TrEMBL record:
Statement: the UniProt record of this protein carries the keyword Transmembrane: yes
Superkingdom of origin organism: Bacteria
Gene3D superfamilies, alphabetized: Ribonuclease Z/Hydroxyacylglutathione hydrolase-like
Keywords: Membrane, Transmembrane, Transmembrane helix
PANTHER family registered for this protein in UniProt: ENDORIBONUCLEASE LACTB2, METALLO-BETA-LACTAMASE SUPERFAMILY POTEIN
Pfam families: Lactamase_B
Metallo-beta-lactamase domain segment(s): 22-223
InterPro entries from the UniProt entry: Metallo-B-lactamas, RibonucZ/Hydroxyglut_hydro, Sec-metab_biosynth-thioest
UniProt lineage: Bacteria, Bacillati, Bacillota, Bacilli, Bacillales
Bilayer-spanning residue ranges: 266-288
Protein name: Metallo-beta-lactamase domain-containing protein
Organism in which the protein naturally occurs: Oceanobacillus caeni
């Protein structure tokens, strides 16, 4: 079940039938047991995987969360209450979890409908209880945190999630990047709360520049395989986003269109029906272009449409 991914760090792939289909949990060895980075979703399949690990007699010292998306924080409460393991999360995650707990289903649906997006099924909102816990520890940006026996720098990297953090150990030159940078796919950048639209793609670009200042020998990702040529991969992500931005801009060059229309032109009809990720990718790019004053919006019959500005 556990695979050594680099010295003193084991990887557990926690599989489940949703989202990305699995998440990488990392177990960092320490004198008092392992520190677990991210847990997997709150689903029976993930619980059974962890029970099998614990049945081997392995000791977990604490759990640390990179960000509070369900597939990463889903079993934090279970670890805390059932296994008796303390949990550490970013301090700003307290507010994010509170918003998730109080989020109104119909308000979120109305927000997405305004952009002509898909109708979210109820299961998107049925697991709020995972956020109903108090962490044993919180951390902030550029703080030292002990993972296993080693000290890591905490690095705030909003974009994929507003409360996303990476962890860097200078001595071993290891960077834990969660979902901020992935090896084979581009992390989803979306608007996750109807109350605060913001400009998440701008946040992501700024965070990529921050993390590009590090040159790890290995970057441990939240999904998929590790990254060994880290700066090259960050540059690839930046270039791909720029290419996609121009593609979105071209799609609205001559007429007003909804996010759904642009999404279907770029990703195809199937994605907009079954995959919220494609919709969010287009929405956040249009918001970014609007903030750059390259596109403008108007509202017609309750639907928001976008068009490239005639004079940029």
């Amino acid at each position: 079940m556990l695979t050594e991914i680099t010295e003193g760090i084991q990887r557990l792939i926690v599989t489940f039938p949703m989202g990305m289909g699995d998440v990488n949990s990392y177990l960092i060895e320490g004198e008092n047991g392992y520190t677990v980075i991210d847990t997997g979703a709150n689903l029976d399949e993930a619980v059974e995987i962890w029970k099998d690990v614990l049945d081997t007699g392995i000791k977990i010292e604490k759990v640390v969360i990179t960000h509070t998306h369900e597939d990463h924080v889903g079993l934090a409460r279970w670890f805390q209450e059932t296994v008796g393991v303390p949990v550490a999360i970013p301090k700003i995650s307290m507010k994010e979890m509170e918003k998730a707990l109080n989020q109104d289903l119909e308000q979120v649906r109305a927000y997405i409908k305004k952009y002509d997006g898909p109708n979210l099924p109820n299961f998107y909102f049925e697991n709020k209880r995972i956020f109903a816990f108090q962490p044993d520890e919180t951390f902030e940006n550029h703080q030292k945190i002990k993972l296993g026996d080693d000290l890591y720098e905490t690095i705030w990297t909003p974009g994929h999630a507003y409360d996303h953090f990476c962890f860097y150990n200078k001595e071993k030159n290891v960077l834990i990047v969660g979902d901020h940078v992935l090896k084979d796919v581009s992390p989803v950048v979306g608007v996750w709360t109807a109350e605060e639209e913001g400009n998440p793609l701008q946040d992501y670009f700024q965070s990529l520049e921050v993390i590009k200042g590090y040159s790890p020998k290995i970057a441990l990702t939240g999904h998929g395989e590790p990254i060994y040529e880290f700066k090259k991969r960050v540059t690839e992500l930046q270039e791909r986003h720029m290419m996609r931005l121009e593609e979105v801009h071209a799609a609205v060059k001559d007429e007003y269109k909804t996010v759904k229309q642009v999404c279907e032109e770029i990703y195809g009809t199937m994605n907009i029906i079954i995959d919220l990720s494609a919709f969010m990718a287009v929405l956040t790019r249009l918001i970014y272009l609007e903030n750059m004053k390259r596109v403008e919006r108007k509202e017609v019959n309750g639907k928001v449409l976008f068009k490239a500005r005639e004079k940029e």
